[in-house]
Amino acid sequence: MIIFKTIRWKNFLSTGNAFTEMQLDRNTSTLIIGDNGSGKSTLLDAITFALFNKPFRNISKPQLINTINRKKMVVEVEFNIGSKKYLIRRGSQPSIFDIEIDGVLVDQNANIRDYQRHLEENILKLNYKSFTQIVILGSASFTPFMQLTPNIRREIIEDILDIRIFTTMKDALKVKMNELKDKLRTLDGELTVTKEKANLQKKYIDTLENDKQDRVDKIVNEISDIEATITSLLGQVAIDIEVKNEYGDIEANRKKLENFKMDFTRKIKEQKAALSFYADHDDCPTCKQGIPHEFKETITTEKETKISELEVANTELVVQWESLDKNYEEYLNLQQKIVDTNNTIMSTQTLLQRLVVEKSEVENKVGDIEKETLSLKEVAKDLISKTNERTDIKEEQEYHTIAESLLKDSGIKTKIIRQYLPVINKLVNKYLKSMDFFVQFDLDETFKETIKSRHRDKFTYASFSEGEKQRIDLALVFTWRTIAKMKNSASTNLLLLDEVFDSSLDVNGTDYVMQLLNTIGDDANVFVISHKSDQLFDKFRSVVKFEKKNNYSVMT
Question: What is the pTM of this model?
């Protein structure tokens, strides 16, 4: 409950540079009187200006500043909510807007609009329209509940029932839903990119693996070809060795023939030397004796025969040598072929070993694939994370959709209003009867009225007289205050009635209203602004009078 304690103002409207202060919680009923233009209605404008930055009456904000002083206009309102003490200070020339809680100034980093919203939504829990319907009745600037549109009527009732929070929640939920939609849209884009990245990474790894396998297969084929070549060469060497072995010990035979050839040559040379000796000597060179002719002929014939035999044998030996020499050349060629083939085998085996090593290296070379696989795992992890995040957002959207349906005007708020409508209608009719106005008044869920007479004739608010309308307006004000008191958060001690008794109420109506005012409880503080001081003076606990002195409004 809001307990208004004091209000003070200076340089406000016709008030001078000294504060005018009123205690708002001192008396249960206060009559404010004064001549026209004396400033008795200033209270209405001061309290709405301080709380909502707008006067109650149809006055522009620049006109609120005293036209003589034209500066340092200030209004201060003090009130309690529970154990907390609040002071609202607002002014112009210079511009002022302060909120103090228990003597501590609230942080003013936010802009004025947010600051005002904080005051209305978090502290007062009332906006201007709701405040005026609960606290103020009367005045030419006042628009009664029944003259408001159904939408505004609903806002006021939602404030009174303390269910505007659902509207605030709905607005916040709408912002959150839009944020989720934007986030989901962004996340879907990121998911598309991440999926494509993962696919490209997988294709790249497959390419690396395929290239690796192609290289391995190529090496395996090369190894197979080389092994076949080596096998073929080894077979050829075996054949050549077998052929080589068929030549036997050709080198020994060749050596032997060479020795024979040398021996025959030597013997032929010896025989020819001997033959030449006997041909050239008739006497022995050693003993000087003559060599018989017959002996010479005999020796010569022997030597010639021997030489002839040796030359024949040597000719045969030469033929054998030539034949053996040809085979020997073939033998040497075959031996060189075997050497060359063995060298080829060795070099081929070296190549084979290198290919085997290369194959092993290629098979074991996984660095690039492992690196890219790790990169793919990170992409996959990111993809899973984003997918899970998207799932969470979709779930949150589903929850918010359910909450949104509940927070619609047709949702939980309507259910609450339905519960209170019978109570509201019952209270309105109670207060109407207490003012001797016997009709059946009902508001429906769209906040349109149905008014029936005792004879069940249907009426509208507009069809009644001004005095009857005022009774309906009063009944509604008292109803809103009763409902607000039930809800506590929208309840307040303050009730301001501006010229209610001065207009269309007759004597009986005045008495009925006074009876109602006396029943609203000791926790209420009623201020009645009126010209009828002679009729009302003795009906109030206190009287405050405003008058003009030196063009300034003064409270006495």
Answer: 0.57
